[in-house]
Amino acid sequence: MNTPSYKYAAAAAVALAILFPVYWLSPHWWSGDSFTQIMTQDIQVLDFWDGLFVLLGVLEITVYAVLRKQFSFQFESATPSFLLILMMVFVALFHATVFVDVGYALGLFAHVPETLVLGVGIYALIMLFLYAVSAFIFAITLLMRFRQLNGIMKVFATGLLIACVFQFTVILGIINIFLFPILMLLLALNFYRGENEVEVI
């Protein structure tokens, strides 16, 4: 069964695979001398990149929502679905940092104090860490059901586990700029194939 929602999810995953590295490799993330300076510059400007940041969050949540729908048919256990909900929540909370940029644009801040920049940075890192923990457990949950997964999802689960380990190290997390799009393309292929190969357990 290849429903429209699966086709839309496949398109969202492909778009995410393309736009994710475009955003995180954009010049505005590499134009400052320090993390504080980069964050300050980002908060002070509400532009195209902020819109793209929001779009990335919407696309990622869309992909996970449809993946959750697929797993609800494939697995009796609700654990994978619950973990996907957690991942969606942390993605939404991470991308909610754009409201600080909106607040500055509306004049709610006369200037950007260093404490605000530091607070936003710490908050973003915490959300990324919590997302990585949820995704790590989710990947393990999938690998525990290895025989029930099709070939694409087996590779996806393994790749997601590796990406989470990279994220935990922080420094190696930069590799995920390139690994994450690959994972999204795998999901796009999975969605494109639809549910016709899903075995109801």
UniProtKB/TrEMBL annotation:
Keywords: Membrane, Transmembrane, Transmembrane helix. The chain crosses the membrane at residues 7-26, 46-67, 79-100, 120-143, 155-188. The keyword Transmembrane applies. The keyword Transmembrane helix applies. This is DUF4386 domain-containing protein. It comes from Aliidiomarina haloalkalitolerans.
